[in-house]
Design a protein that fits this description.
Blueprint: H1 2-13, H2 30-64, H3 67-93, H4 97-104, H5 113-143, H6 145-151, H7 161-198, H8 207-215, H9 218-246, E1 249-251, H10 256-268, E2 274-278, E3 287-290, E4 298-302, H11 303-308, H12 311-326, H13 329-359, H14 372-413, H15 432-448, H16 463-471, H17 482-526
Parallel strand pairs: 2-4
Antiparallel strand pairs: 1-2, 3-4
Helix pairs in contact: 1-3, 1-14, 2-3, 2-5, 3-5, 4-5, 5-7, 7-9, 8-9, 10-12, 12-14, 12-15, 13-14, 13-17, 14-15, 14-17, 15-16
Length: about 525
């Protein structure tokens, strides 16, 4: 979801696109229509290939009970999702897909509507992949019915195909997509409002604001940056309330388990509004922490997790989610995303602009429209920039997950209900029992979600690596865990990147404008 949205945003940031201020977008050419057709055909081919592999895997499971067939289908499902995203990116930057949506389909530059339509083909391919994978998912669920009954766990009815696809979309796609669309809608609204005020539309009500915006070409950029920052903060605060409606949740009932989980929050000095049961009808074993501020903060645990994991492992998952709140991982991840965009933007955009100014000043027209080769150069640089941003985001996210695992082991080590050896008043080091609880929780989550422990994850890393890192913590001092030191360095680097990003904004709005004027002046003198 991040890649899909970011590619459209980066496309709009290229010069000559005419978006963000009500200007008519560039009409698509015949080549754009051909490229769009090729992109849509590629999407259909990806969906068909995924369905064919899943169908063949289902037959292998029925005939031989092959787990290798399950792994093949799972790998194809992931490959199909990845290829759909790559095809979308190519269609946006090379095929003119966004221009086809806005002009060719008559959508225009409506707030967030055109972006939502632009990412729809890739989302449909992902959803069709889940539709194709459903027969395998149903066989996996039915294969453990006997064990579930023997162990006395609740047995949920197998969801229908449509219920499975809808649940996957709600719980996997919308988790990221809804906040991103909210931020995008806010950002576009800020641009439209500033443009309206700048043109004098609000002079009757806010004359000072319009005058200030018109005083300097830098003022609209400064106001837009402040407006976007405010919007991100607002979205992070209220997204928890929105996701409560997107997902089906109920309050965790009073009892010993609720008391123990709230006790963990108290020991970690983390305040929450409530603990919720995330009702997935047994289709997911997971936890989540939502909300930037305590009055709007919730911690969710799925129904299947509460039904199948022993109490100590439930506490481990809870402590892991508490860690994300305690260390403010979500705001820092967002800061890492913004900072990496700034850093890679400096590495990609500024050299192109420098070349355009010093090597081809005559190519800059009097209306300050960049030459065609400059637009294409920036489009080509957008690919490496996006790749660098994603690699950085995933690398930082995995370290935050490792820190959350370590925090859970540390928090469980000081559990007042856990008996200590004779003569020991309080633990000073990570205990074997707390590490075993967290390692066991990861193993249970992997098994119940049908996830191979060696499978890598972009944001979380593999379960096996996380278990290995946890085992190295046994006996270490509670207050000097290696991952905490590493994350402090990461956060320092994020701060530096944000400062660089702010400097880049200043360069774009001031120095770059002066350099363009100088280049035009040299070109005029030469003529």
């Amino acid at each position: 979801m991040i890649v899909l949205i970011a590619s459209v945003v980066l496309h709009d940031g290229l010069p000559g696109d005419g978006v963000g201020s009500g200007i008519a977008p560039r009409p698509p050419t015949s080549l754009d229509w051909i490229a769009t057709g090729a992109m849509l055909l590629a999407m259909v081919a990806i969906a068909a290939a995924t369905h064919a592999v899943c169908w063949a895997a289902t037959r292998m499971i029925d005939r031989r009970g092959s787990l290798a067939a399950v792994r093949s289908a799972d790998r194809m499902l992931l490959a199909g999702q990845t290829l759909a995203v790559v095809t979308h990116v190519l269609g946006v930057f090379i095929g003119g897909w966004v221009d086809v949506v806005r002009w060719g389909l008559g959508v225009g530059d409506l707030i967030i509507v055109d972006e939502a339509i632009a990412i729809l083909p890739a989302i449909m391919v992902i959803a069709v992949g889940w539709w194709s994978f459903y027969p395998i998912e149903r066989r996996l669920r039915e294969s453990v019915w006997m064990r579930v009954l023997e162990e006395g766990h609740p047995l949920y009815p197998t969801p229908t195909r449509s219920q499975f696809v809808l649940s996957s979309v709600r719980h996997q796609l919308l988790l990221t997509l809804v906040p991103l669309l909210m931020i995008g809608a806010w950002s576009e609204s800020v641009d439209r409002a500033l443009g309206w005020i700048h043109r004098g539309g609000a002079d009757a009500l806010l004359p000072a604001a319009g005058e200030w915006l018109r005083q300097s070409p830098d003022h609209p950029a400064i106001a837009g940056l402040i407006g976007r920052i405010v919007g991100v903060i607002v979205v992070l605060c209220v997204s928890s309330l929105v996701m409560r409606c997107v997902w089906e949740t109920i309050r965790l009932s009073d009892g010993p388990l609720r008391d123990r989980l709230l006790g963990l929050c108290g020991r970690a000095e983390v305040r929450v509004r409530d603990l919720l049961v995330w009702r997935t009808r047994g289709t997911m074993v997971n936890g989540a922490a939502m909300g930037l501020v305590a009055p709007l903060r919730y911690i969710l645990l799925t129904d299947a997790l509460l039904d199948h994991l022993p109490t100590r492992q439930v506490e481990s998952v809870m402590a892991h989610e508490i860690a994300h709140v305690r260390h403010r991982h979500i705001p820092w991840l967002l800061a890492a995303l913004i900072g990496s965009i700034g850093v890679f933007g400096v590495l990609s955009v500024l050299p192109v602009w420098g070349l355009s100014i010093w090597l081809a000043p005559a190519g800059i027209d009097d209306d300050r429209t960049p030459p065609w080769w400059l637009v294409n150069a920036e489009a080509l640089m957008a690919g490496p920039m996006l790749a660098g941003v994603l690699l950085t985001f995933g690398w930082v996210s995995r370290r935050f997950e490792w820190q959350a695992d370590a925090f859970a082991a540390r928090l469980l080590s000081i559990d007042p209900d856990t008996p200590l050896p004779p003569g020991v008043q309080s633990p000073e080091r990570v205990t074997q029992e707390s590490v075993d609880a967290m390692v066991g929780a990861l193993a249970s989550v992997a098994e119940l979600n049908h996830i191979p422990i060696q499978r890598r994850s972009f944001r979380h890393g593999s379960i096996r690596v996380r278990q290995r890192r946890l085992n190295t913590l046994v006996g270490r001092p509670l207050n000097t865990l290696p991952i905490d030191r590493q994350v402090r360095w990461i956060k320092g680097a994020i701060v530096v990147a944000l400062i660089l990003t702010a400097a880049m904004v200043v360069l774009e709005t001031t120095l770059l404008s002066g350099l363009l004027d100088a280049g035009s002046a040299r070109s005029e003198a030469g003529r």
